[in-house]
């Protein structure tokens, strides 16, 4: 068997085209979704990510706002908190994104928790996390339709949401499947495990202290690798016919290439390709979904605001 | 093999004795931990639980406060919220417990979220839940010692905490073990899964939509059954030598007995006894731990308050 690629690039493009179309069909003079981005310090990678996010907003007809802060003597938490407060109160801003990591002297949790949960399009605020980690089915609990993530009334983190969107778009029926998540980070592993659980998968979380990761993963119909170790998952880890979502983006030496390195996933793609049914390439798999889901969250925040009126 | 019983009754008694001793050794005139309990309506079972909790406080030298509200025309959320606010501000109150379930016309989430997280000894507030569902290991994240649950600076739900305490007191080394949690409720299944993960178990969560629960559970070194189905887990589900924590308390008909019913767990105890190494009986296993952990949370809340001064 040769696995089919899960083409994250074209799936992300499709999501973005859907949003573009929705926004283009608004009457003239309508309010538009707006994303505010905070960039602190001079990291080149952060600058690139922020530019990509702003361009993506423009491409699909959303507003974006940027505040940059050099990492100098004047930088402090109060300065950033004041800006967050402004954006929280600004009706033109529907999503607030704090580009991470922040410089060491700034406490990330303090800044992230200052963002209004309704505008927390990264889904990192404890109020949003607590709702995601909730399976309440008692009488008073809101009945959520997890098969339609845009109907969920709070923000779901972008990369985990993108993983599930990929599975949906290839027609993968998650319910009842054995899903194994490799890695237990707050940014990816844990939230993706919760999303799989909400979709009624049987979910196992493995990590650095797991004995015989290989044996556990080999039971999986769906593997989500989010551990950040280049090529950790080889052919022998995989059950024939499984679906592989590779969240890892690791740079490995590639002497003789122009850049001197190349990006690879947590999964040994060439080997996995021989045994899986579906697999995300790296790059071009999960990566492009993150921005698409960020746009969708911003649109969703805007939609909820306008519907409330 | 015949499994040894995990004697929750005597372990809970030991925990309570430790607290009693700590409190007895305080200088005369010291402040004491205080638990405030809200009881709404006329459910006999709730009245019994509340009485047990108050008696447990008295036995170990803590204060307890009780407010009861009949489920009548005068009952409304404002009335309950005003009482919660009073307790939030009362320095004699270190723990606030709202006995559930509340009458239908009261929104449970509204009441529970009004409790100050630092006094939320049931660990049900979203702020506490968000902290439990957090594995942050980045530089800025607080380093938590999950092997000493009393050192965790927020409230962990009582029954899940009791499950882990039982494992600790029989000397079960959780790290690296395969743990399977049956059930995904917010009250037990999910938080116990998180606690096992924090202790570096490899955790699988199974539920009503899982295919072949039996096959999954048979891989488990540690089984936590929290599903509420009498005798669902039989001998064929269990790996020889496993440890079984049975959270279920189900009443089944017992014609000819005085009460006409008896209480059984989610696990078929007699069969499991033949194959497991350790097992909690029902009753007398997990049950008694809930109140012991409630007392410990209240003591912990008090201790943190006094240490801050």
Describe the structure.
The structure is a homodimer of 309-residue chains. With 309 residues, the first copy, chain A, is an alpha/beta fold. The longest helix of chain A has 22 residues, at 287-308. In chain A, the strands form three sheets. The first copy, chain A, has a six-stranded parallel β-sheet with strand order 1-11-8-7-5-6. The first copy, chain A, has helices spanning 8-24, 44-60, 77-89, 108-114, 126-132, 158-169, 189-198, 213-217, 269-273, 287-308, and strands at 4-5, 34-40, 63-69, 95-98, 178-182, 202-206, 222-225, 243-246, 250-253, 261-264, 278-279. The first copy, chain A, is built from ten helices and eleven strands. Strand 6 of chain A pairs antiparallel with strand 6 of chain B.
Task: Give short descriptive properties of this protein.
homodimer; 309 residues; Rossmann fold; six-stranded parallel β-sheet; globular; hydrolase (chains A, B); multifunctional enzyme (chains A, B); one-carbon metabolism (chains A, B)
